[in-house]
Amino acid sequence: MTFNSLAFLIFFPTVTLLYFLLPNRFRWMLLLVASYYFYMSWNPSLVFLILFTTVVSYGAALLLEKTESKKLRKACLIITLCACLGVLFFFKYFNFLSSTVTGLLRLFRLPVKDHLLDLILPVGISFYTFQTLSYVIDVYRGTIPAERHFGYYALFVSFFPQLVAGPIERPQNLLPQLKAEHRFDQDNFRIGIKIMLAGFFKKVVIADQFAAYVVQIYSHPETATAPAIIIATVMFTFQVYCDFSGYTDIAVGCARIMGIRLMQNFNLPYMSRSIHEFWQRWHISLTSWFQDYVFYPLAMNKKLSRFARKLGKKTGNRQIGTMLPQCVALFITFLLSGLWHGAAWTFVLWGAIHGAYQVIERLTDKRRKALRQKLHIPEESKLLACWQVFIVFWLGVFALIFFRANSVSDLGILLKNLFTNWRFLGTFDLLGLDEVGVLTCLVSLLAMSLIDRMLVQGWPTRRLAENGGTLLRTELAAYLVMTIAVAWLMLLAGDGAAAFIYFQF
After folding, report:
1. Catalytic residue among 149, 276, 283, 341
2. Would 158 disulfide with which of 3, 35, 101, 494, CB 3.0-4.6 Å?
3. The pLDDT of residue 499
C-alpha cells in the first residue's frame, strides 16, 4: 500500500475515524495494528524483520539502563548495533559487497563465480533501522530514559505515516506524542489536509510527470546528447525533490490530522546559498542523524585530533589541527550517506562528490569572505545571493547525474556525452517533450514554488487573510483540490500509481 493508491484512500480515513472514536488507552493498539497492516500489505513475510529490530533495540535499551558496568554497557551497545545493522547489511548490501569482491578478484584473473542471493529489499528498512539505532544510542548516552511499554515503543518504530520513508523521528519527539491524548481539532484537520494535498500535488502532478521524461535519457545513455542530459537532470532534480518532499508532506499531514506533529524534513533546499546550507534544508532528519551519530563522534575522535595536531606542528600550519578532523569526518559522513541511499557505486560516488563539495567549501570559506570584502560586496547583497543560489543549484545538478545513473558503465557514457556531444537538434525528441509538455512542466514548477512557500512561510495564505482575501484563498484551495483529483483519477485509470523513489532506499 502506498499513499498514492486507492487502498490508502480507504485505509487512512477508516483508521483516523476509529482513532478518535476509541478511548485514549486503546488508541496505541489501533495504530500499532494499523501500522503493521500497512507494512504487511507490501510483503507480509518480511514483517519479522521490523519485529526483530524492535525487540532487540527494546531489550537492549532496558539492559543499558539497568547496568552500571561500562564494559557491559559498551558490549550491549555494540551487539545491538551489529544485530540491527547486520539485518540492514544482509538485505541491502550483501549482493553489492559480493559483486564488488568478485569483480576485484577477476581483475587479477582469478576464476571465481558469482555469489548473489535472491533477496527482496524490505521497504523502509533504512529508515526504521536508523530510528531504532538513535533510540538505543541516546539511552546509552543517558540522553533519554528507556521506554518500558513495549507497545508504545513498537508503535514508535512502526508508526505508519513515516514508517516507509521518514522523516526519521527521534524518540524524545514522537514517543510523548503517541502517549498523549489527542482530541479532534478543526485547525489540525485543516492544516493536515492542506499539507497532504500539497504532497499529492508534488508527487502526482510534478514528480510522476517529470519521471516520464527523465527515464527517456537515463534508460538510453548511448543516444543522449549533452543538452538532453542537462535538461533531463534538471528535471530529475525537481522530480526527486517533489517525490520525496511530497511523501514527507503526506506523512506530516496524516499525523497532523491525528494531532501528532512530525519534524520538518525539507525547507526550500533549492534556495540554499551554500552546500552546507543545502544539507541543512534537504532531508533534515537524515542530515541531523548523520551529524549527531557519525560526524560529531568522528570529528571529536581523540586519535584523529592528536594526529592532526602533530601534523600541524610539523608543517607549521596550526589550522590543520582543527580543520583536518572536521574535513575527514565530513568526507566519511557523506560517503556513508551515499551508501545509505543505495547499494551501488553510483551512490557512493554521489556521496563522495558532496563530501568533496563540503570540504572545499569549508577550506575556502575565509578566502571567499576576504575576496568579497576586497570587492566591497556586502553579505546581504541580493545579487550575491542569486549568484550563490545559482552555483549551489548547478553543483547539485551535476552530482545528481551520478545519483540517477543506472550503473557505473552508464555513468561513464553519460559523462562522455555530456562533455563531447553538444548536438542541440532533436533534444526535445529524445526527451519525448512537445510544446504542451514544456508549458505543463513550467506551470507545474511555478505551482510547486507557490505551494512550498505557502507551507514553509505561510505565504500567500496569511497575507490574503490579513487583507480580507478569504474568497481568493478559497478559490486557490478549490483549484488545487480539483487539479489533484483530476490528475490522480487519470493516474489510477491508467498504468497505476507510481512508487515513491525513496521506497527503494
Report:
1. 341
2. 35
3. 61
